[in-house]
Amino acid sequence: MAKLLTKEQIQQAYDQYLADHADEINVLITKKIESAVKSSIAEAFASGRGYDNQKGWAAKQVTGLVDEKIKAATNSKTVVVDLDNIQNKINSTIQRKLKKLDVDITI
After folding, report:
1. DSSP, residue by residue, 43-60
2. Are 92 and 99 in contact (CB under 8 A)?
């Protein structure tokens, strides 16, 4: 009958495996960490376009801050439209075009 390994033997084999393959294990751990970080960043800054159509929390924060700044900037400044000036510019442009216009009428 086969003899079962003891807990100490299993622990020793495990420790030996970790020691023999430390570099490979560190590379795999590093890749897993990088993948998790990239995934978290992508999820946080999701644009709301695509399969699930939802914005990430960071994208929501950024767009919220930008919207607030735009709203504050547009509310604080009054836009004055000088209709007389616009009308004068349009009329002068029309007059210039009319002066260049040459029409021959034949009856």
Report:
1. HHT-BS-SSS--B-HHHH
2. no
